């Protein structure tokens, strides 16, 4: 009987292993605000297990074992020597608390940090979607390995490791280019009329999180895609560009920004929000409460801040501080509404658990968790099909080749230009070598005979592809630009 009790004691320790891990963690207090706990809903499987344990406790010969002890014994035996099961249990335990708490293995946590800091293992190519292709527009850093390997600006990626990537999204193509450090990937590019296979080695690549430019009318535009450790410094560099050019009307784009490091958002806010509170961070234990302030006496800058349904977390901290202080007006649609803060607790074996530890309250005392920020100017973007009637029609009956002349040639140029394939002039009717190469390229990726001849089949296929094109009309950006006195036509 003593042996069974001793085993039960050991099993209790194992069953509570997730909590014993916290002994190795950094000391950080749980900080969610106390609310009345909702009625717990347990799965049917758990209820069946509990019912069986209760029955066992009444029928088993050892009357000292109650149902709770029997359940702990079962969990302990299930976990013993089963690391995968333990990880699964810890993940389910954390994820059952809310949408943001979770458990990471050491490898998963490194991947999380890489994502947060925009660091990954790739080939260092800057890409844009150009029609059906991903076109190389630059390199992640000057004199990069990618450029030394043989890639050139203007190359269009056709295949990756032999797989056709035409018509894939840019994200899908980027995912195929990423992999393990120092692994290789074979990329087929189209350069002019030549298909070139390049073997590239994956290295550590760090993407910037801030990009800025000066639009016509001396109006600044800055986009922040997330908040990593370097985001504030990247923003300060863009701000220097604005200052050196006397730009004081700025459009800040926080759309689709999922958040990230709170302090990065706070540092940016401290550089643009007039003196006063930025945000309150409220913990479960009041003694850990923290408030962040700006000491900036004043600012000569005015902002319109673009937000949408995917603007969340730290992005909402920055947006709310700008809105509440009056330095910026929000343009777009209601934001996501994630006003809780997670903290990480590292463990000795390299694994980490992330726990919702606090909530934040905006400068003017608003609780926005699950609600979001309401824009000052509510604008919804729209998607529309291209009006094909304004383009030169193709006759679909004749063949056209190098040196030919006619409206169909001009129509083909217009369509292939819109598809990102043809780069030449579209205001003439002459079938040039440049158009011939564009036709070949289109035919190749659409599994047609790459003859460079604009035959009836090719014309029909081009028209079908062109007719299905859609474009997003960025009414949010247009609205902000117009409010600053810009001419929308200058954005095209």
UniProtKB/TrEMBL annotation:
Annotated PROSITE patterns: PDZ (PS50106)
GO MF, any single term: serine-type peptidase activity
Signal peptide, first to last residue: 1-25
Coiled-coil annotated residue ranges, if any: none
GO annotation, biological process: proteolysis
Pfam hit, one: PG_binding_1
UniProt-listed CDD domains: Peptidase_S41_CPP (cd07560)
Keywords: Hydrolase, Protease, Serine protease, Signal
Gene3D superfamilies in UniProt: 2-enoyl-CoA Hydratase, Chain A, domain 1, 2.30.42.10, 3.30.750.44, PGBD-like superfamily/PGBD
Domain spans labelled PDZ: 113-177
Entry-linked InterPro entries: ClpP/crotonase-like_dom_sf (IPR029045), PDZ (IPR001478), PDZ_6 (IPR041489), PDZ_sf (IPR036034), Peptidase_S41A (IPR004447), Peptidoglycan-bd-like (IPR002477), PGBD-like_sf (IPR036365), PGBDSf (IPR036366)
Family as reported in the entry's similarity comment: Belongs to the peptidase S41A family.
Name by which UniProt lists this protein: PDZ domain-containing protein
Source organism of this protein record: Candidatus Ornithomonoglobus intestinigallinarum
